């Protein structure tokens, strides 16, 4: 199976061919995927070199001329390093762009902590007006990329990951999907953690929601689920643990509730190892999730 990042180049190349507003801005990373596209559209495929602040600034400039820029590099270089440009060049100027990241939280452990960005979604939460897509499969990534580019002039972040569920599911860029229904709690799985969550909750009397678009947060789906399953909610996110806890608390502020936020911990893992070892170390494998979810919901759930 191809990866989400494998899908990115061909999908955006087709969008370049289809829509004269679309432009791609790169900072060396991913440039090989657009070699042919750059020959056909030399004025709309821009490689700024290893200059991430300029990457975002150039994207914002294109947006201000009426273009729909797709801006791509690793998450740590796309959100963290040029954060001031996200805040000012895009946010302050009301300019829209599609930011597409790779490497996610710890997809390339050999790259070290400089190439890890588990706090990217939490950091974007400090800014106004961002849509955030977190696909869990290459098919979902393709659909959400097309949604993002077609989303007028909005600010959109598409978080691609090397981690993937075994099968893609229909996604619409807005709503959560209900995959299981129970009466003893709600477990919300985000993007590529779904398969581990489904295994971890097998046999448990819980509702499982699946989210690939987390901002805006589908509060209506959560409220519907909690009316039937109760207001104990477990969030399982493939980035910083607790990133969406405040959103859930706001959604359920009118009723007594409990929230457990599971995800990537703050402690830096300095023995980089393999991706699967990071998943286990952060307690995001199925066995660890089952223990943690079971302990939170209580015996007999």
TrEMBL record:
Pfam families: Transket_pyr. One of its GO terms (molecular function) is magnesium ion binding. Residues 2-167 form the Transketolase-like pyrimidine-binding domain. InterPro entries: PDH/Transketolase, THDP-binding, Transketo_C/PFOR_II, Transketolase-like_Pyr-bd. This is Transketolase. It comes from Streptomyces tagetis.
């Amino acid at each position: 199976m191809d990866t989400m990042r494998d899908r990115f180049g061909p999908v955006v190349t087709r969008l370049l061919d289809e829509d004269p507003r679309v432009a791609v801005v790169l900072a060396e990373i991913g440039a090989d995927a657009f070699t042919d596209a750059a020959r056909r559209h030399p004025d709309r495929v821009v490689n700024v070199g290893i200059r991430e602040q300029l990457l975002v600034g150039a994207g914002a400039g294109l947006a201000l001329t009426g273009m729909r820029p797709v801006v791509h590099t690793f998450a740590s270089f796309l959100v963290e390093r040029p954060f001031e440009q996200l805040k000012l060049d895009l946010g302050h100027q009301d300019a829209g762009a599609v930011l597409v990241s790779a490497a996610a939280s710890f997809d390339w452990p050999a790259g070290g902590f400089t190439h890890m960005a588990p706090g990217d979604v939490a950091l974007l939460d400090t800014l106004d007006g961002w849509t955030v897509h977190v696909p869990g499969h290459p098919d979902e990534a393709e659909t959400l990329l097309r949604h993002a580019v077609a989303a007028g002039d909005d600010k959109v972040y598409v978080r691609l990951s090397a981690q993937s569920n075994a099968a893609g599911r229909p996604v619409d860029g807005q709503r959560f999907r209900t995959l299981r229904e129970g009466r003893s709690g709600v477990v919300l799985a985000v993007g590529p953690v779904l398969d581990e969550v489904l295994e971890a909750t097998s046999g448990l009397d819980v509702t499982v929601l699946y989210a690939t678009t987390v901002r805006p947060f589908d509060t209506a789906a959560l409220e519907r689920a909690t009316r039937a399953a109760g207001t104990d909610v477990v969030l399982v996110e493939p980035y910083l643990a607790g990133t969406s806890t405040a959103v859930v608390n706001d959604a359920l502020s009118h009723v007594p509730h409990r929230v457990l936020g599971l995800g990537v911990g703050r402690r830096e893992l300095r023995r980089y190892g393999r991706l699967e070892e990071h998943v286990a170390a952060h307690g995001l494998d199925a066995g660890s999730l089952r223990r943690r979810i079971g302990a939170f919901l209580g015996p007999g759930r």
